[in-house]
Amino acid sequence: MLRRTLLASAALGLGLSLASGAFAAGMDKVKACFVYVGPIGDGGWTYQHHQGALELQKAFGDKVEIAWQENVPEGADAERVLTQMALGGCNIIFTTSFGYMDATNAVAAKFPNVMFEHATGFKREHPNVSTYNARFYEGRAVQGYLAGKMTKSNKIGYIASFPIPEVIMGINSYYLNAKKANPNVELTVVWAFTWFDPAKEADAAKALIDSGVDVIASHTDSTAPLAEAAKSEGKVVGFGQASDMAEYKPSPRISSIIDNWGPYYVKRVGALLDGSYAQADAWEGISGGEVKIGEITEAVPADVKAEAEKIRDEIAAGTYHPFTGPINKQDGSPWLAEGQTAPDGDLLGMNFYVEGVTGDIPK
Amino acid sequence: MDIAGINLVTLIASLMVAAVPILLAAIGELVVEKSGVLNLGVEGMMIMGAIGGFMVAVATGSPLMGFIGGAIGGAVLSLFFAVLTLGFLANQVATGLALTMFGLGLSSLMGQGYNGVKPPPTGALFGPLGDIPVIGPILLGHDWMVYFSILIVAVVWWVLRYTRTGLIIRAVGESHDAAHALGYNVARIRLLCIMFGGAMAGLGGAYVSLVRVPQWVDGITAGAGWIALAIVVFASWKPWRVLLGAYLFGGITVLQLRLQAAGSSIPVEYLSMAPYLITILVLVIMSSGRSKAALNAPAALGQNFHASR
Which domains does chain B have, with CATH numbers? Predict the structure, then answer.
């Protein structure tokens, strides 16, 4: 039995390596596969990736076949799923969560002719691994400004998922820009240690609200924090995360960060089809269209809304960087000098809070 | 009333709400196990209750109808389990696990199109009385399900301990052969207990989707059913201890988030694993020997029964 499996995979591998000869010259048909960390119905992160996948399907019609798997745990299971997909004839596999980083690289080593695209990671150990991300911190800056202006208690909250650079970057950008809008603002961070657990996300929001917080940003995937904020009858507001979450308009959802993956997926698979595909490290933001700011609702005063939109446009135009010095680290040591903007390397490896944020990052 | 920056009143009030789903599911499972059946499908029945209750509540606009729908959803799924284990004598552990997976998948299918829909709100039972300081938020500020869940615990305790029905259920769970010899219909009694367990799990699930999170997303119960199973063992099959266990588990979940919000320096990881550590600890203590608790598990738990044997 084992020998038969081995033979089968060897045969497949051979088939794949034969197919790879066609890479340089492009391909007639591509099978694009997606690995999701939550259910498509989460209304947030995974939902948006799936929207991107559907957009890809629509853009190429018959030339692209898409396949996906939901609720894949980050860890050993992910490796199994990726191997299965690679053996199942996928030409390009998008792994859409940070925790798939090591699994993606491990499986990529075994299938040099399958292209792997890992979202939000930084490891590209093999030529067939690319990474892609979006500059969500740009959206967090707009949210931070709104939070600073909208809070009445001067306490704002952030429901964090895992202590990774992506999340810490978001917290820092949110805080710095809130502080700029309102010097008295205090930030409370609650770590949920999950991407998706609606009940826990709701509990986290409730804990924040009970401690006096009245503006909540979340870095988890579901709409539960907004649902909890909705119970406060307008006293607490929040933001759509990853997806527009328009069903909570006009309040508590006063704006949102929308992940727009479709154009990237179309570009990459298109490159595979026409033979121009190459390893990449993509990191686009508001200007590239990967990050969109959802409509700022009428719950926000008109002048605040106008200013927030101005910040958005300045970020898009490149005239304003959310991390502009002088900025110190939490322990008081200098990070950025006057007028200096954060280099990408610092952001991608960010493991410290900026000055003014209280509490410790869990290790 | 503040300890380490945490307001005790809001802590207690919110842990009572957080504990309702696991409390309901656990008290239902307790009755099922008391009748000698081990149904590991609590998670599946809960999520069927969550989507069933949500659909009915959205369709009728009435949260009460929603909760009834949730109970029916859970009970209907538990019927599959009953048919397989009582009718075809399938292995209870395997059937229960299959029930969970089936329930998760089916609920996801049924829930298509319900993402982002808002259910009708369930208000506080006593209205403005909840604004009285201290006792208001803790005793009077909740929705009716919180009181109902405590009432159910009392009723289950009373029935199991003081009524003939309770005696029969316990007899079937301790020795189905003896109960059969006395002329009781073991399969029918177990069927009713399984359906009660399903209905309670369904109610718990409906509480998650209608009150605690108020929306439908796939996998909304996120493992609450497994915690309910642990609570039954933690409580050594005693109803009031189920209440204690549910409040303890619910309390720790709420507490760890609040400690963070209050800026405590206790690492989150320790608090996150605390409920499970306590369960393991209780299991170790229980199985460590001659204590009465260790003997409290129903003797026929997990064994199938057929009259011809």
Answer: 2-295 (1.10.3470)
Contact A41 B112 (CB under 8 A): yes
Letter string b/e over residues B112-125, b meaning 16 or more CB atoms within 10 A of that residue's CB: eebbbeebbebebb
Tens-digit pLDDT profile for chain A (363 aa)? 444 554 445 444 444 444 443 344 678 899 999 999 988 877 788 999 999 999 999 999 999 999 999 889 888 889 999 999 999 999 999 999 999 999 999 999 999 999 999 998 888 999 999 999 999 999 999 999 999 999 999 999 999 999 988 899 999 999 999 999 999 999 999 998 888 888 888 889 998 998 889 999 999 888 889 988 888 888 899 998 888 888 888 888 999 999 999 999 999 999 999 989 999 888 888 988 889 999 999 999 999 999 999 999 999 998 999 999 899 999 999 999 988 999 988 888 899 999 999 888 887
Q: What residues of B are in contact with residue A155 (Cβ under 8 Å)?
A: none
Q: Which residues in chain A have their CB less than 8 angstroms from residue B261's CB?
A: 157, 188, 190, 207-208, 210-211, 213
Taking the C-alpha atoms of residue B140 and residue B152, their distance in angstroms, rounded to an integer, is 18
Q: Are residues A245 and A101 in the same domain?
A: no
Residue A312 sits in a domain whose CATH number is: 3.40.50.2300
Establish if A360 belongs to a structural domain. no
- B113 CB neighbours in chain A (<8 A) are none
In this complex, the residue of A193, A211, A245 whose CB is nearest that of residue B261 is A211
Distances (CA, A) of B116 to A34, A44, A125, A241: 23, 11, 40, 14
Residues A246 and A324 reside in one and the same domain = yes
- Sign of the CA dihedral with B222 first, then B226, B228, and B230 last: negative
B170 token code pair: 């316990």
Residues A146 and A212 in one domain: yes
Task: Check whether residue A253 and residue A152 sit in a common domain.
Answer: yes
